[in-house]
Design brief:
6% strand; 3-stranded antiparallel beta sheet; 12 strands; elongated; 812 residues; mainly alpha
Length: 812
């Protein structure tokens, strides 16, 4: 009884405890039910994940174990120790321990089985077939080789293929295409399936298909994600650094790989500042491997793409400076075209060929044989830090060039080249503006006329030369339309075209009458013009007061000659004869007057245009002009009524008595009867049958200087107005500085960005070349970078490391 009572008591106690526990649990559930719900959901998710993992393990085959786990562990330690702010971004997976170690990782696409031997035997039934015979060991495929992976044929080689290839630190080579890795059925290279440092072994099956398709499609699709381009680039980088430069093997492949890199740069540098920097610097490494010690002696050919001045150019200029040689014009031109420190406005790009020719001419004028530069302290050095994670923690690849100075550490030569670029740009601005309005108009006469004659096309230059030959034999009469046809010009000969052509002709020693450069109206296409040989500008003749008075005399004489409806050859010869006797004018002025008279002989003269010109002349000058007009009445030996009547009008317009016209005609006729030839100022006789009154001619000469001031206002009507041609909008001014810094600190910043690591001693030399204080300059760069880009420019004291991300962003 005691035992049963004891058992009952024990059972009751248990029930009480359970009830109390249930009550407490119920209380907890009521008070903290969200936590219990979360726990249940988490447990269900975990069970679902384990179920899917078992299903995946049943489908995926195992791969061969990786080698040398000790090296991998050592590589991981080294990699972590070498990290700085510019190392692997957050989220990037570390190098993974090899199979067989206690810390073995399991890849998503690898099969690992644990448990009994029977279980492992069943799993072996799902292994994929072994790699093809040719891929049992990794190898480099040449340009002419092809291979097939996952049913995708890839031609063109230049890739590592095989099951195993380790990096310098023992990890898996990122660029290696392992045929054993699964490849998805879908995936396209325009979609991003990779991380910052892609590796073929680590990317997803979808990404592998996308990458293989990009390779098969020719590796040139411009819309491909840059991750696949980098993955391919890693293999080229490894081949150059480890196999060719490191092991000195396959040297003959270097030109082929260089061409491939330049092709990739041309296609993808615009899409990624990072790729632009790495690919450009690797190209420089190749170009530097086989350079002459005197590159400046020959042409450099097509310069490689580069973030700054291409290395061959920097090296050639540096060698010239080292040897005390003036910078040849071809190097100076390349320097002006490629230096980011030199501002180049739109005309330089839009008129590239014309700019080259003009630069060569201006450079020779400024520096003769070439610009001489004193050697600076900063020495040329090329440094390349590989892009592939397979080189993470390795030293950079450095190349030195002895005592060759780095001219990018100087600002004075850049300023001198900038001045020449600016002067060339100013000359090309009208041509550039015309092309902006007429993109296909490079051969248009309007465009050609804006250029210096030496840059005209061959057809236009030949037309000028033909005209020179003709005018050397005398005056050349033609119409404006005929002249423009000579230059194969299209459209109407507008005033702007006429003035531009007249200016160009004058620059080549060919004068034109009428003087369209001073006219306010455009001549009609059928209007006559006369071309003649000259050696002075029209403006130099036009500003001479004596010439202005003589020009009025020629106009009145032409009006009289036209009065009978026939301006005869004898009248024209008579006009030439007296023009030749005006020795108060120089030969060029007399030649222009003859051309003007020849032009007037084929066109009408309106007296209304002359009235305003003569109304301010003094009486003595007007009488001299009138006497000259009277002499033209008898130029053909007959005084016709029409000519006498017109002469009367001229005298009235000159403010003279009409009857004076008859006495002047009589005097001229009397002179003809009394002399066998007319007299000039020195008493010489002219065989024309009559003489112009020498006293009145003398009065014309003497009064020229007196009326100079009064004549200044007479010809306002003939002054050419400001051109109404609509100009293209002013081009924006582009700054060639960096981060808003001055020239010296901008040059310092560009120099620093040419490498990722600098010794302090090297930077001290550069600072001295630029006449700046090193520590202050570094501080200024970092402050400007923080203000503009929210990141520092440099880090460390010795060596000084340059922010790679900043370089990538500024290379965009």
């Amino acid at each position: 009884m005691a035992k049963r009572r004891k058992e009952s008591s024990s059972l009751a106690g248990t029930i009480v405890i359970i009830a109390a526990a249930l009550a407490v649990l119920a209380k907890l559930v009521v008070d903290y039910w969200p936590f219990f719900v979360a726990a249940v959901v988490a447990y269900l998710i975990y069970r679902l994940y384990r179920h899917s993992q078992r299903a995946h393990e049943r489908q995926c085959p195992p791969v061969q174990p990786m080698q040398n786990p000790s090296n991998v562990a050592q590589a991981n330690t080294h990699d972590m120790a070498s990290r700085t702010w510019s190392a692997r971004p957050a989220g990037q997976p570390q190098s993974r321990p090899q199979p067989g170690t206690a810390t073995e990782w399991i890849e998503d696409d690898e099969l690992r089985s644990f448990g009994s031997a029977e279980t492992r035997a069943r799993v072996s039934d799902y292994k994929i077939p072994p790699a093809p015979e040719q891929f049992k060991s990794a190898r480099w495929l040449g340009k002419s080789e092809s291979f097939v992976v996952a049913g995708i044929e890839i031609r063109g080689g230049l890739i590592y293929v095989g099951p195993t290839l380790t990096t310098v630190h023992g990890g898996v080579e990122p660029s290696l295409i392992d045929p054993r890795k699964p490849v998805a059925k879908n995936g396209h290279y325009t979609e991003r399936h990779t991380n910052y440092w892609p590796s073929y072994s680590d990317i997803s099956p979808q990404a592998r298909r996308a990458y293989l398709l990009w390779l098969a499609d020719g590796r040139s699709a411009p819309d491909a994600d840059i991750g696949y381009v980098f993955l391919y680039f890693y293999g080229l980088e490894r081949r150059i650094i480890l196999d060719i430069l490191g092991e000195k093997q396959a040297q003959d492949e270097l030109p082929e790989i260089a061409r491939e890199l330049k092709r990739l740069y041309a296609t993808y540098a615009i899409n990624s500042g990072s790729f632009k920097m790495y690919c450009g610097q690797l190209i420089e490494i190749i170009d530097a491997t086989n350079q002459s010690s005197k590159l400046y002696e020959g042409e450099l050919g097509n310069l490689p793409a580069s973030f700054g001045l291409p290395l061959p150019l920097r090296l050639a200029i540096g060698q010239a400076v080292r040897d005390g040689i003036p910078i040849p014009v071809h190097l100076a031109l390349a320097w002006a075209e490629r230096d980011p420190a030199i501002a180049r406005r739109t005309p330089v790009q839009r008129c590239a060929e014309e700019f080259k020719k003009l630069f060569v001419s201006e450079y020779a004028k400024a520096f003769g044989q070439g610009l001489k530069i004193a050697p600076n302290k900063t020495k040329l050095k090329l440094s390349y830090r590989p892009a592939s994670s397979g080189f993470m923690g390795s030293n950079s690849v450095d190349m030195k060039f002895g005592d060759t100075p780095d001219v990018t550490a100087l600002t004075a030569p850049v300023k001198k080249l900038q001045a020449i670029v600016d002067s060339c740009t100013k000359v090309l601005e009208p041509y550039s503006r015309y092309l902006a309005r007429n993109p296909d108009g490079k051969q248009d006469l309007e465009a050609v006329l804006t250029l210096p004659f030496e840059f005209w096309p061959d057809t236009s230059r030949k037309a000028i030369e033909d005209i020179k030959i003709k005018v050397s034999n005398g005056l050349l009469l033609l119409s404006f339309k005929e002249l423009f046809t000579t230059f194969k010009a299209t459209g109407e000969p507008t005033k702007d075209k006429q003035q531009a052509l007249a200016s160009a002709l004058e620059a080549e020693g060919i004068g034109i009458e009428p003087d369209v450069l001073s006219s306010i109206r455009a001549s009609k296409p059928e209007d006559p013009l006369v071309l003649f040989e000259t050696s002075v500008r029209a403006q130099d003749v036009r500003d001479n007061p004596a010439y202005k008075v003589a020009k009025i005399s020629v106009e009145l004489a032409a009006a009289v000659a036209h009065a009978d409806g026939d301006f005869s050859d004898s009248e024209l010869a008579h006009l030439y004869l007296y023009i030749d006797k005006w020795d108060h004018l120089n030969a060029q002025s007399r030649q222009r007057l003859k051309a003007y008279g020849r032009m007037l002989a084929n066109s009408s003269v309106a007296l209304s245009t002359i009235k305003k010109k003569v109304e301010q002349l003094d009486k003595q000058t007007r009488e001299a002009i009138a006497a000259f007009a009277a002499a033209m009445v008898l130029a053909d030996g007959v005084a016709l009524p029409e000519e006498v009547k017109l002469l009367e009008k001229i005298y009235l317009q000159l403010g003279l008595e009409r009857t004076t016209a008859y006495s002047d005609i009589h005097s001229a006729h009397a002179g003809a009867l009394s002399q066998s030839q007319p007299s000039n100022l020195s008493g010489e006789r002219v065989a024309t049958g009559f003489a112009l009154d020498p006293l009145k001619i003398a009065a014309l000469k003497e009064s020229s200087d007196k009326i100079a001031q009064r004549l200044a206002d007479i010809f306002v009507e003939e002054t050419a107005p400001v051109s109404t041609v609509q100009e293209a909008p002013a081009e924006p001014q582009h700054s060639n500085t960096i981060l808003g810094l001055d020239d010296a600190h901008s040059a310092f910043a560009r120099l620093l960005m040419s490498r990722l690591t600098w010794d302090r001693a090297e930077l001290l030399d550069a600072a001295q070349d630029l006449n700046i204080m090193l520590d202050g300059a570094l501080e200024k760069l970092n402050e400007a970078s923080l203000d503009e880009l929210d990141t520092t420019f440099t880090e460390g004291d010795d060596p000084v490391e340059i922010n790679a991300e900043l370089i990538e962003s500024m290379a965009q």
